[in-house]
Amino acid sequence: MSIPLYEPLNVLKNVDKNIWIVDGGLIKMNVLAFGIPFSTRMTVVRLTDASLWIHSPIEPDEQLFEAIDALGKVKHLVSPNKIHYAFISEWKKRYPEALAWSSPGVNERAASQNIPVDFDVSLEDEAPPYWSEEIDQLIFKGSRVLEEVVFFHKKSRTLILTDLIENFEPEQTSNPLWRIVQKAAGIAHPDGQTPIDMRMTFAGNKEEARQCYERMLDWQPEKIILAHGKWYEENGTAELKRAFRWLDK
């Protein structure tokens, strides 16, 4: 395998009480004319009303659906940024009563990619009443290209990110080209950060990004879930400071 997968795949893995991750297979993203492989990961939170909140749904799998159904009723399907949306329409077919939540720019992105998604409501800078007592959120601003909605599960003190930090493991990456790319992009464990191409999109707007980062620091996370690569099971606040030191330059 060119980059590591986090097996077992399509299986609920407990993070803390009422919060799980599910690791999925590979996808390829076109970056500078290259088809770069990415591992995938979604997050599931069971809210106090026993409904399920699903962040960045991965490719559907029937056994996964069965495991999800055993947890509770799916009510929220969340696109955290305009790149993470491709499988929401398939999850929506399985759970037609669930609300599909759109991130900034995702409707335009989906239309340009000819991937129809019927979103029901837009994510804002403040958490909606459905989950505001349990999950906080903000739109990480300052990029000219990509705004990401980040979330904080309060009881477990878990920060849920998507692409703002990527943390691939070079020692488990068999393809030497991808090892070079990971290190050059600043997304190689143990120093995973915001990808360098994404950092460049904050030029001239770092103060706005810094304010968002400081709000995340105020949450004092213990864990940080990432969509791509090794996530942080401990020392979350320290890892956050390390990964976002580029904002101080």
3D structure, described in words:
The protein has 249 residues and is an alpha/beta fold. The chain has a single domain, classed as Ribonuclease Z/Hydroxyacylglutathione hydrolase-like (Metallo-beta-lactamase, Chain A). 24% of the residues lie in helices and 27% in strands. It has seven helices and eleven strands. The strands form two sheets. A seven-stranded mixed sheet has the order 1-2-3-4-5-6-7, with helices on one face. Helix 1 links the parallel strand 4 and strand 5. It starts with 11 loop residues before the first strand and ends in a 6-residue tail after the last helix.
Provide a concise account of the structure shown.
By secondary structure, the protein is an alpha/beta fold.
List the helices and strands and how they pair.
Blueprint: E1 12-16, E2 19-31, E3 34-46, E4 51-55, H1 62-71, E5 73-78, H2 88-94, E6 99-102, H3 106-112, E7 121-122, E8 135-140, E9 148-153, E10 158-160, H4 176-184, H5 196-200, H6 206-219, E11 223-225, H7 236-243
Parallel strand pairs: 4-5, 5-6, 6-7, 10-11
Antiparallel strand pairs: 1-2, 2-3, 3-4, 8-9, 9-10
Biggest sheet statistics: 7 strands, mixed
Secondary structure: helix percent: 10-25%
Query: Separation of termini?
Result: 36 Å
Mean pLDDT: 94
Q: Give the strand content.
A: 25-35%
